[in-house]
Amino acid sequence: MRQTYIKEIAKHVGEEVTIKGWLYNIRSSGKLMFPQIRDGSGIIQGVVFKKAVSEETWKNFELLTQESSIVVKGKPREDSRAPGGYELDITELEIVQIAQDYPITPKEHGIEFLMDHRHLWLRSRRQQAILRIRAEIISAVRTFLDDSGFVLCDSPIFTPAACEGTTTLFECDYFGDEKAYLTQSGQLYNEATAMAFGRVYCFGPTFRAEKSKTRRHLTEFWMVEPEMAYADLEDVMNLAEEFLSYIVARVLDKRQEDLKVLERDISKLEAIKTPFPRLQYDDAVKMLKEGGLEFEYGNDFGSPDETYISQKYDRPVMVHRYPAKVKAFYMESDQENPDLSLSVDVLAPEGYGEIIGGGQRMFSLEKLRERIAEHNLDEASVDWYLDLRKYGGVPHAGFGMGIERCVTWICGIEHVRETIPFPRMLYRLKP
RNA sequence: UCCUCAGUAGCUCAAUGGUAGAGCAUCCGGCUGUUAACCGGAGGGUUGUAGGUUCGAAUCCUACCUGAGGAGCCA
How far is the CA of A247 from the C1' of B11 (A)? Predict the structure, then answer.
C-alpha cells in the first residue's frame, strides 16, 4: 500500500492508510497503548486495543522503544482527546528496526549533551519547527529576489585574499604552492556580476575565523547578498524593508504551526510592515546618550547599544550613515559629510540586533585606491576589482543578510546554533 | 584573547567537611483513554584529571582539561 504522510491525514479519515515512520513516544495502559508516530511531516497518536489486533501485533508493540522505525496500518479519525486532533486506530505493525537506548529521552537535557547528539536532536519537535521555518525563509528569500529581477550569481568559496581586511580568515592549502581562504563575503564578486546583470544576488555559506563565543555567532553561516547597479543608499533601504516584510509575511502564512510549537508571539511578527523606521547614526548616538548609556561618538555600536536602539521600535530599524572608519573600505562616503559613509545596518526588534549590513559602494577609482592603502590591503590582489571602476563604473549598492540571525529573530529563540542543521562554532566541529 | 559560571549514575539534578541520593531512561510486574501518563520492584558511581590540606573531601586549596554565558569583533 502507498505511504500516507501524516500532514495529509485529514484527507484520509475513514480510509485504511499506511504510515511509515518512527516511534516518538509510547504510553500504555494495560490492554491499551498510545504510540505516537512521526514520519517527518508530522506526528500522530495511534491507538492499539489488545482485543482489536493479533496477539503477535500486540507483542510486537510491547517490544517497541523510542525512535524504533516502524510501518503501521490503520484508519485515521478525528478525536479531540488526541494531540493534533486526529488519531489512528492501528491494526497492523511492521517493525523495521528496534532502536536500542535512544539517548535523547523525553525529559530535559543540557545544551552540551544535545549539541553532541545534534544528529539525533534534529528529530525533536522543536528542532523540526525551527528548521522548517529556516527552509521557508530561504525559499522566501529566493522567491522575492527572483521575482524582483535579481539573477542568482553565486560567488566563489575559495578566495585568494580577504574581501574586508578586518576579519580573520580560514586558511587552506591550495595545491601546495598557493594559499586559499574561505570566503567571508561575496561582496567584491557581486559588484562584478552586478555590472554584468544589473541586479544580482549570491547566496551561500560564509566563513569567519573570529573567536566569537556568543549566542549570535557561528564560524560557518549562510548569507544572502543582493547587489544592484544604478542604485544608491535609499534604494538599498527600500529593498531591505520590502525584503524583510515579505519574508515575515511568508512565514506567518505558511508556518503557523511551527511558530506555535516554538510559542512565538505572533503579534510581534504581524507588526513587521513597511515602512521601517530610519535613523541616522548621529541621532542613534543621541538616543543612546539620552538613555544614559556610555558611548563615544565615532565608534561602532556594541551589542548592548544595538539592543537598546532596537527595543525602541516594534519593527526593524535601519540605522544609516555610520562613520566611514568603522565600515568596510568599499563604502561610499556621504557628500554632505565625508567622515560618514553611505551605509546601513538593519537591527531586528526585540533585542535581536544586526541582521543586515549594507550600503552604497565607492564609485571613484582614486578614492577607492586611497581607502585600500589606508586599510593596508594589497592592491595587486584586488586589481580585477579596481577594473570595475575603470570600465563603465556606475553607482551601485547592496546588502548582506545573515540567514541564521534572521531565523533566530523570526523564531524568537535564544541562540543561532539551533537555526542550522549542523552548527559550526568556536571549538565545536562535531558532529 | 579577556571576564564570569559550571563539571556527581546513560540524562537532568540533590547532597555545603562525617554511610553518595532522587526523577527520567533501561529491565521485571500492574493498569481499557494516556497527554513529558501513572503505581510497585531491580540493576546502574574511580563525584572531569592530577596534586595538596584534613582523623575524614563531591564539598576546602592549586594547576590543568572540558563546557556554557558575556566582552571585543561581526551577519
Answer: 38
| Helix (H/G/I), strand (E/B), else coil: A110 | coil
Average pLDDT, chain A: 91
Residue A40: the pLDDT is: 92
pLDDT of residue A228: 97
Q: What is the CATH number of the domain that holds A348?
A: 3.30.930.10
- Would residue A105 count as lying in a domain? no
Give pLDDT, residue A166: 47
Residue whose C-alpha is closest to residue A27's, from A18, A40, A36: A36
Alpha carbon of A352 to those of A161, A209, A317, A339: distances in Å?
31, 22, 11, 28
> Would the Cβ of A353 be found within 7 angstroms of any atom in strand B?
yes
User: In this structure, are A242 and A321 located in the same domain?
Assistant: yes
pLDDT at A163 (0 to 100): 54
Evaluate whether A228 touches A396 at the Cβ level (below 8 Å).
yes
Is residue A430 domain-resident?
Answer: no
**CA angle at A113 for the pair A132 and A216, rounded to the nearest 5°:** 55
Residue A355 contacts strand B, CB under 7 A: yes
Q: Which domain covers residue A18, as residue numbers?
A: 6-97
Provide the pLDDT for residue A55: 87
| Length of chain A (residues) | 431
**In this structure, are A209 and A327 located in the same domain?**
yes
Distance CA(A343)–CA(A333), nearest Å, equals 9
Using only the alpha carbons of chain A, give its radius of gyration: 26
**Which regions in chain A score pLDDT beneath 70?**
1, 162-167
> Cell numbers at residue A40, please?
517527518
Strand B contacted by A404 CB (< 7 A): yes
Residues 210-269 of chain A with CB under 7 A from strand B are: 210-219, 221, 223
Residue A112 CB closer than 7 angstroms to strand B? yes
Is residue A331 helix, strand or coil?
strand
Tell me which of A33, A62, A97 is where a domain ends.
Answer: A97
Strand B within 7 A of A28 CB? yes
Which CATH number belongs to the domain containing residue A46 in this structure?
2.40.50.140
Identify any residues that bridge with A76 across adjacent strands, giving them in sequence order: A88
A430 CB-to-strand B distance under 7 Å: no
Tens of pLDDT along A305-354? 999 999 899 999 999 999 998 998 899 999 999 999 999 999 999 989 99
In-domain check, residue A72: yes
